[in-house]
Amino acid sequence: MATAKVPPQLWQPRSYSGLMTNDLTDSSPEETVPCFALSKNDSYLMSSSGGRISLYNLLKFKTMLSIMQPPPAATCIAFHPQDNNILAIGRDDSTILIYNVRSAKVITILEGHSKRVSGLAFSNDLNLLVSCGADAQIFVWNVEGWYKQRSRFLQIPDGRIPFSLSTDTHIQFHQNQTEFLIVHETHLSIYEARQLECVKQWVPGDFATQISHATFSCDGQMVFASFLDGLVSIFDASDFQLYCQINPTAYLFPTSSLGVYPTAIAAHPQEPNQFAVGLTDGGVIVFEPPISAGKWSMLTANENGSASKIAAELEANY
């Protein structure tokens, strides 16, 4: 239960002294695509870093089994929300494998993307699987028959040229299970899943750097986003109104190298105003709003339209 005043602690069973380690390929870590997914009861972790996919028991820190020797390598994983034995596995050959862990059988292979699959998300209410990839496409698959319902290319903002022709796209369903967040280096957008319509979009300013990651808060009211220049922004999820921006000087040590920036961001599952970022140097930082504000939403934009800048009063822990 980390807070800004209680540092996060590394926990592992007393009876086990080692760490869970993924099977790795012969390539360098920088070239692999790490991915993992938690089961719905948080007892199991399915994880891969370019090699075989391993199923870990989180309570015992024990490897239960390993599957799917690459190639192709897994690039994203998602548990079926109603059956922990069924996995959706996105792969770097552009396919999605639907796999039953208990029977060790492939249920089906979904094809449609033209580049690696970088994001998968299930909607329990709609019986849908949504996928996105480095090809800037979104696919909606019917879970009952595992067939494609519809697809769409991302609406890349005019004049925004992705840094790479194979930019990964990430996806996350809102808690209402009917809308989902799309994270692309050029923009953030929210889509309605049934018709696959973009209902709102946010585009960085002309001189802003690329978006590295983003996520909904646990109550779905905010979006936390990070950028390659170290900036962290907090938005209202309903209209992408910018509540505040956190400058890298507010949370990075002065001795940090210029190449350190947030590469992953995660919302606390019960505290809407708390989130954590993972840095390129391996650091993890927990953020909370200043005590004087209490909520990020209280840090509204200044009269000149610029977002509130958080520096000395920022509540963070390393």
From TrEMBL:
It comes from Salix udensis. Coiled coil: none annotated. Keywords: Repeat, WD repeat. Pfam families: WD40. It comes from the Eukaryota. WD repeats lie at residues 110-144. GO terms for biological process: regulation of DNA-templated transcription. SUPFAM superfamilies: WD40 repeat-like. This is Uncharacterized protein. InterPro entries: Topless_fam, WD40/YVTN_repeat-like_dom_sf, WD40_repeat_CS, WD40_repeat_dom_sf, WD40_rpt.
